[in-house]
Amino acid sequence: MFLHNSYEHLAANLIGLTIGGFRVWLNFGISGVAIIFFGGGIIAGLDRKRKMLQLYNAINSSVKKLAVNLPKETGFIETMKGFFGNDVENWIDETSQKIVKEAEGIASRISPFISSYLKFLGCSAGVSALSGA
Question: Helical H runs in 46-133?
């Protein structure tokens, strides 16, 4: 129930949880908040098709971000330049772009495997349930 695609997704859920949760708390107390939040999340978690789509999107996004940012942020390119010269930067950029292009294929192969082992619930659905209560 605590898997988020990005920090923006997490922030939006926290804002929705604060606003919707406060309103529900005033009317139904903390147990009402918990029942509605987790109930909405459980119902969303039972929807395997959407769960797979959520997981696929999270993996696809993560693979693309890693392929583009990891070599630059870790200093890998600068280290490899010392060993192999300036051509290594072009090779890493080309390889990163190939990985980005293949990200959807990677996600489509990995997500069914991971999904069978993960039993996560829908936090966004829990927040939506609170907003609708």
Answer: 48-73, 76-84, 87-115, 123-132
